[in-house]
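TASK: fixed-backbone design
INPUT:
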């Protein structure tokens, strides 16, 4: 039996999830708190750190906590841990989140983009393990659109930690609606749950469906307006995926997040558009789109395996793999206060 555990944190715009995790038993304990963004970033950090400290007081059968990892919405500059105009964390621009948490906990931590951690979890515990894949790309279709890359079994963070922002790739040059990132026509404006709701209000008015799930129910009942919304989602995803496939030539691209509950509604238009957009996909399209095993030299686009727990699982895995020594910060850190 393992004698160690990690603590993982998934910092979301709505909820803050904190868990103790053991590689053999999985989650030992999970806490779910509201993310009190309106109270300010310092309060969110306090809430997070108090939850972490609470879990560290448990022994979980004489286990030792060997690492703490936290996933946050990006863009996140690494290794400094400074947030750079995160669209889903208003008022956090320039905030050194890593330093704030390290000082509060008096412990070293791992801080990473939440979509990267979800991708790590999929590679270690989900589709990557299922199909034996070490290179994969994930798009998470939630409130926004996250993106992560794992290459050769390791997170690809880029030169400054901000790789994996395909949610802000332009998929519609005629779009006039601004995105939270400061651009226009981003994938996030077409393939996120927020985008589905926005498009539904434009078509149905304020009395229309208020969640992406409700829009999907209308589409499945045969409503043509709702059906067109998910066709638009599929086309937008195809534009982004075409760029990723043509650039990266990976064997596996996964789509996760709540919008993927409507896979049957958006995937037909996605695959149709993708064949028009990507010559590389046309050359490497598999015969079976939902396989039991992956053919070599083919390009697969599948639903992610781990659901809403992927980000939290990825943080826990990163904490275990980092094996960070939980000790007081060094002189350099203290001098920066």
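OUTPUT:
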């Amino acid at each position: 039996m393992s004698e160690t555990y990690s603590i993982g944190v998934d910092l979301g715009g709505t909820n803050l999830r904190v868990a103790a995790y053991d590689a053999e038993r999985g989650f030992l304990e999970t806490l779910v708190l509201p993310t009190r963004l309106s109270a300010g970033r310092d309060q969110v950090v306090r809430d997070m750190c108090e939850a972490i400290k609470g879990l560290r007081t448990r022994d979980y059968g004489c286990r030792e906590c060997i690492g703490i990892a936290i996933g946050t919405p990006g863009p996140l500059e690494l290794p400094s841990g400074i947030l750079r105009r995160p669209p889903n964390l208003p008022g956090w621009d320039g905030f050194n989140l890593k330093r704030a948490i390290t000082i509060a906990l008096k412990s070293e931590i791992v801080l990473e983009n939440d979509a990267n951690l979800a991708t790590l979890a999929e590679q270690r515990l989900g589709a990557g393990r299922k199909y034996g894949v070490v290179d994969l790309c994930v798009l998470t279709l939630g409130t926004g659109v996250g993106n992560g890359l794992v290459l050769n079994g390791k997170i690809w963070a880029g030169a400054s930690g901000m790789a994996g922002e395909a949610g802000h790739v332009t998929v519609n040059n005629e779009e006039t609606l601004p995105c939270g990132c400061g651009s226009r026509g981003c994938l996030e404006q077409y393939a996120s749950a927020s985008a589905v709701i926005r498009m539904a209000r434009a078509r149905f008015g304020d009395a229309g469906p208020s969640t992406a799930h409700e829009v999907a129910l209308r589409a499945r009942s045969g409503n043509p307006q709702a059906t067109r919304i998910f066709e638009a989602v599929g086309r937008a995803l195809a534009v982004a995926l075409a760029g990723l496939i043509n650039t990266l030539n990976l064997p596996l691209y996964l789509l996760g997040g709540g919008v993927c509950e409507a896979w049957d509604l958006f995937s037909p238009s996605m695959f149709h558009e993708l064949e028009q957009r990507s010559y590389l996909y046309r050359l490497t399209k598999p015969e079976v789109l939902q396989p039991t095993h992956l053919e070599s030299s083919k390009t697969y686009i599948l639903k992610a395996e781990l659901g809403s727990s992927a980000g939290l699982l990825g943080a826990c895995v990163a904490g275990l793999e980092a094996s960070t020594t939980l000790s007081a910060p060094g002189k350099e850190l203290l001098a920066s206060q």
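COMMENT: Residues 324-337 have pLDDT under 50 and may be disordered.
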